[in-house]
Specification:
11 strands, six-stranded mixed β-sheet, 265 residues, D-Maltodextrin-Binding Protein, domain 2, 10 helices
Length: 265
């Protein structure tokens, strides 16, 4: 049997944890697994679309777009519940609006007419949820004075730190990891608004994987927190456990997408 190939289409600061999860799945099921992180981000998307990789951790927007294609070619596996109490032991996450701590910005309203970085227009936490928030405020275009596509959440954080932009919306999971690994950021950045919660990015499996193996992979995820090794791997990613989620769990993302279409950043 060929290896189960795995990709992450989230921030690169989750890659090591994804590699550990990939190895854990292989050990638990006695199969070959391979985590691919040495290829460009867009190619990872393309390989998942072509079912050349079989397992992936994807943004909620990616999931609903892939699932809503006809016919759908992915299925849900599991979604993480993060350790931090603000996640309320649910498979949710947030979009944290950050600024430099030495700037006199204390709310989203303070950023009107200023410069803004976003990671990618295909991102929920960095782009779609911001459009949704602006739509809810009745702001349909021209809210920010200058927009820059940073490419990734980590690059958007750097742009804020280097004073190249005034603000950005960062996936709360990404920011949690950065604040833990780089504690100096605690004094350099300030979160002035939190958007969400939203359904958290899920793990998906392609339908060309045999159904019995798809179900076995799900069960490994669902029970990771019950083994010593699994708990340690999850802890490295600040994850409490992986839980079962259903397609309707991502209807909020679909609804937000429809509202966000009214707004031009």
């Amino acid at each position: 049997m060929l290896p189960i190939k795995v990709v992450s289409i989230l921030s690169e600061n989750s890659d090591e944890n994804c590699r550990q999860i990939t190895q854990y799945i292989g050990k638990q099921l006695g199969i070959a697994t391979e985590f691919l992180d040495n290829i460009p981000w867009q190619e990872r998307h393309n390989m998942l679309d072509a079912q050349e990789v079989q397992l992936g951790w994807v943004c909620g927007i990616d999931y609903v777009r892939k699932m809503d294609s006809k016919p759908p070619y992915v299925e849900l596996v599991a979604a993480p519940v993060m350790e931090n109490p603000r996640y309320r032991q649910k498979p949710i996450y947030f979009s944290d609006v950050i600024v430099r701590s030495d700037r006199q910005y204390y709310s989203f309203a303070d950023l009107r007419g200023l410069s803004w970085a976003y990671n990618d227009p295909g991102s929920h936490s960095g782009y779609n949820v911001v459009q949704y928030h602006l739509a809810e405020l009745g702001e349909t275009q021209g809210y920010f004075g200058r927009l820059i596509q940073a490419g990734t959440h980590l690059q958007a954080i750097e742009m804020v730190l280097e004073n190249r932009v005034d603000g950005a919306a960062i996936d709360s999971m990404v920011l949690d990891v950065e604040l833990k690994t780089k504690p100096q950021l605690q004094s350099q950045l300030r979160v002035i608004e939190t958007l969400g919660p939203s359904p958290i990015p899920p793990w998906v499996v392609t339908r060309n994987v045999p159904s019995t193996l798809r179900e076995a992979i799900r069960k490994v995820f669902w029970h990771m927190h019950e083994t010593v090794e699994g708990r340690e791997i999850l802890k490295q990613g600040q994850i409490m456990k992986m839980v079962r989620v259903e397609d309707f769990s991502y209807n909020l993302v679909r609804d937000m997408l429809r509202v966000a279409d009214r707004v031009k950043l």
